[in-house]
Automatic annotation (TrEMBL):
Phylogenetic lineage: Bacteria, Pseudomonadati, Pseudomonadota, Gammaproteobacteria, Enterobacterales
Native source organism of the sequence: Xenorhabdus khoisanae
InterPro entries according to UniProt: C-N_Hydrolase (IPR003010), C-N_Hydrolase_sf (IPR036526), Nitrilase/CN_hydratase_CS (IPR000132), Nitrilases_CHs (IPR044149)
Active site: E47
Domain of life (superkingdom): Bacteria
UniProt-recorded name of the protein: Aliphatic nitrilase
MF GO annotations: nitrilase activity
Similarity comment: family membership: Belongs to the carbon-nitrogen hydrolase superfamily. Nitrilase family.
Pfam families listed in its UniProt record: CN_hydrolase (PF00795)
CN hydrolase domain segment(s): 7-282
Amino acid sequence: MLNLPKFKAAAVQAAPIFLDTEATVELVCRLIREAADNGANLVAFPEVFVSGYPYWNWVMNPVQGSPWFEKLCKSAIEVPGPEIHKIALAAARHHINVVVGVNERSPNGIATLYNTLVTISDEGRILGRHRKLVPTWAEKLTWANGDASSLKVHDTRIGPLGALACGENTNTLARFALLSQGELVHVASYIALPVAPPDYDMAEAIRLRAAAHCFEGKVFTIVSCSTISQEIVKAMTATHPEAEELLARPNSAFTGIIGPDGRVMGDPLIDEEGIVYADIDLNRCIQPRQMHDITGHYNRFDIFDLKVNRRPMNPIQFTDLPPEQTDLNTYVDWADPSQENLP
């Protein structure tokens, strides 16, 4: 008999310790513990939370922002690597699934960065590393394109779990690719973006995109968005005082949990820091699909044909050696969550 999981989800709305990787990783581990202590089985963190978003791309020209790009490269992390290892150990110790955004540096390119979401199981295993497929607008000055090798739904104790970063949640085909793999729990990670066009309500745009995915796919979405700290404002206004007004616009951050009917569950957070919680019953995903099952009976696959290229994109292929295999899942298999020095 089919009986889908029930669990508590948590969504973090907070600011990182700007470009301070070690301090931000410590913050992540503390928030993991807080969410788990409050009964959460899943905690979602914002886009590139480790450890900061390139706001200079929006308030400076490329030449002025270039020194900041170097700082971001030096603060970026590799996946797998010691920083993710520490977060995975915290996930294992507190028995909670974690999705966290990071600035990922290519192991073969000191200035090749990706906007990456890392999914970690409640056993501390790295299940996936999803690199944002297309950096949005000014973000193209910072991040390289990801590929679809990680466009996957992960089998977890809380159900089939998928994730997309920020603007990817407007990409209908990317979202359908996850739904078609059986996704029932979706994490949408964002950054606060008050520097968008003046008539653009970022908080409402985030809510609208999440509600659309939930209603179309009959799934739950956990939305996690960062905030802009005074530390970030001070850093950007040190040389560009006009940035203060741009970065102070309200309604730039939304964090909340949305059900398969497209409605927000409980009280979301707008601009303020905190953690949102909600009890999720995946059995609620069944009945609405009798009307609209877009990956099943409510579609015409004899008319529509979506093909997804999930081959990894590599800068070079050597024919004299077998391709290198990176097994993220085994990186922390040896972890002992009872270790006293865990966060």
